[in-house]
């Protein structure tokens, strides 16, 4: 099914006789059983006000189209949405609705916030086929909910986005990277923590264990970038060999898209922990490869196929203390996804709350069923 308007979308959901696999641009392959409902035809920018830093677009609008439009006004999507096609081995086209439905946020999240923090408004169709929006006429039975926060990261389980409005920001005049070499993981976490704790407005902090190098990004006016890089080199040079690099846009795009794992066999996990806990967790994992972002708080792990990484984090069978955090299975076989689930199981009270929300917004349970528990 491929609706060409919001009214078509509402009708198709209302008339659906079974589960629906909600698809934006077809890049992620969520593996939900059911008839595919593609939003790719719901495309187009409906309003763009550069002076007000706001944009309204239909959910199926390609991210590349929006980025090109913003670039013409020297603006950008500050939350830096990733393109996971290379990581997942998929094709398709990333869409703005898919970005917000999954709350996909890149390295700059440590400075500007997540995708959901830029979302100003939504229109969507719930599981009963009713069109819902925030502001103006709102369904009586959803009054009081923060619809923006509910829909961002819900993976299409509460409703199917048809339109999003969001904030954009000016493009930075200059960007440079301070790279600190010859670091093990504890040293890298210290370097990244020192950079993030400094007054120099860092917009990226990542670590590549293969090259033993931490990368610290600085953006802004050229003179300011030059001064801040100099100060960071002075501060961080005590931990290793620190130097400024220019022309590093490709480096940060690779970090954003986890390019180091592209074309490599194994399961891919995305782990969120306290940066200080990354030092204890990483050696436990038995990973084929690792990448660290967000100052060490985001770990990408390439694991042997079928590995239960959550069991390792919990300390079950290891005699070690559990390490709190969340682990999401990003890429694996259908069997592994079915056995382990993509998303972290929720504690009983939170799962009861989530179930209540799903029952409210999708009483028939047809929108991406089973995807989030």
Question: What features would you describe in this structure?
Answer:
This protein has helices spanning 6-15, 63-71, 85-88, 96-102, 109-112, 147-151, 185-196, 222-236, 249-257, 275-285, 309-314, 334-340, 348-361; strands spanning 20-23, 35-38, 45-49, 54-58, 75-76, 119-125, 131-133, 160-167, 169-170, 174-181, 202-208, 213-220, 241-245, 267-272, 289-293, 298-303, 326-331. The model is unreliable at 135-141 (pLDDT under 50). Helices cover 30% and strands 24% of the residues. With 373 residues, it is of the alpha+beta class. The protein is globular. It has 13 helices and 17 strands. It folds into three domains: 6-170, Uridine Diphospho-n-acetylenolpyruvylglucosamine Reductase, domain 3; 174-257, Alpha-Beta Plaits (2-Layer Sandwich); 259-340, Alpha-Beta Plaits (2-Layer Sandwich), CATH 3.30.70.
CATH architecture of the largest domain: 2-Layer Sandwich
Strand order of the largest sheet: 3-4-8-6-7
Question: What is the string of helix and strand elements?
Answer: HEEEEHEHHHEEHEEEHEEHEHEHEEHEHH
CATH class of the largest domain: Alpha Beta
CATH topology annotation of the largest domain: Uridine Diphospho-n-acetylenolpyruvylglucosamine Reductase, domain 3
Question: From the structure provided, what is the oligomeric state, counting identical versus distinct chains?
Answer: single chain
Largest sheet: 5 strands, antiparallel
**C-alpha Rg (nearest Å):** 21 Å
First-last Cα distance: 25 Å
Computed structural class: alpha+beta
Number of strands: 17
Count of DSSP helices? 13
Determine the fraction of residues in helical runs and give it as a percent range. 25-40%
> How many distinct folded domains?
3
Shape: globular
Mean pLDDT across the residues is 92
Strand content: 15-25%
Q: pLDDT below 50 for ≥5 consecutive residues: which ranges?
A: 135-141
